[in-house]
């Protein structure tokens, strides 16, 4: 068997020749070219990222101007109540809004069986309003002379009204309202009834915190919990488990913002109160909302005389 051998190196190698100056010149040119290409590439990457960050940057925060001072939001269920009754509720809101040069937002909605009621999002509201007042459709404004921004939300007024160091969910919740909270720190005002927090009448200060709060309250994860009382129990849950929300919350006496037509539900309406809510009025029978509303028809006279 034969194997091929590599050729032997010559024992007489050629004489040493120094490198010519052309080779370093060529290499330096190549390095310069490569450097320019890399610089151009990095410049393009930087410009692309800069342009992309502009396209995807969050919108600049819009600070509400306070004009109008308040937006009233009422959600109407036109498939459940009669037209006459709903027209009366709309008239009540419009008269109050006109008197105080406010805005009214009555979004329509259709509620499916078993679906929690829809609360308004910040996108439903006039962006420049200082405050957003949600008022249930089964409630009437009774005192046209009281302004939300003065009667409830003025910091010095809140200092007088706030119920401090009080169980969030009565009677014995270990989570209590903050004892050191100041009026200017409050962004969310509501009341309690005998069952717990009442979401039938509440006020939120418009701004970034309001957006965060509404989105948290109706986050899909809380909807999936299937709370027995839907949004009310979801509200009680996030208030007790999220200090970020509790730190902005103020409880006020029920008659300040949310009097009831029946004492068994909570504090009942007295003459001069801002609002009366028709407590537990039904769709049929003797206790329909329309029948119950007749007991408080004096709101029309109050507006005429104001």
UniProtKB/TrEMBL annotation:
Gene Ontology CC? mannan polymerase complex
Regions crossing the membrane: 31-48
The keyword Transmembrane is assigned to this record: yes
Keywords in alphabetical order, please.
Glycosyltransferase, Membrane, Transferase, Transmembrane, Transmembrane helix
Q: Could you tell me which Pfam families the record lists for this protein?
A: Glyco_transf_34
Q: InterPro entries in the record, alphabetically? A: Glyco_trans_34
Q: Which domain of life is it from?
A: Eukaryota
Q: Which family does it belong to?
A: Belongs to the glycosyltransferase 34 family.
What is the protein's name according to its record? WGS project CABT00000000 data, contig 2.3
Question: Which species does the entry assign this protein to?
Answer: Sordaria macrospora (strain ATCC MYA-333 / DSM 997 / K(L3346) / K-hell)
